[in-house]
Amino acid sequence: MRKLLGHGELLLYLDFDGVLHHENVLWHPRIGAYLSAPEQYKLFQHIGLLETLLEPYPQVRIVLSTAWVCRYGCAKSAKQLGPRLRQRVIGATFHSRMDQDMFTALPRGKQVWEDVRRRKPSGWIALDDDGVKRSLDLIQLWNANAAWI
């Protein structure tokens, strides 16, 4: 069995909505993603902050754990991050061989945990606004080896 990208590495599971920008993102067939939020909020407004936070940790790779991947695919979603973060992206928790309805029915914590079990990273952490609202709390799943952040 071949090893997945991220095997033995340090991984950041990254959500977009509620993390890199306001949580209230809507989709329209003609204009794509847009925020329904006060004017001071912009899509991907916190990319610079995440770049700064990760700068001392060049070994950290990113796995996208966002609904954007189900809608746009991994490559197109990663393009939204800009070059500095995009070069760290090694994949996503969702991929085309999965049943999308079954995947999206899972709590986010379970989606992440299943990917952790497949990739077997040396350490991982999830940056997500969904953990508190779901039955499978990401904090309980956080690998103790991920104390590098």
UniProtKB/TrEMBL annotation:
It comes from the Bacteria. This is HAD domain-containing protein. It comes from Rhodoferax potami.
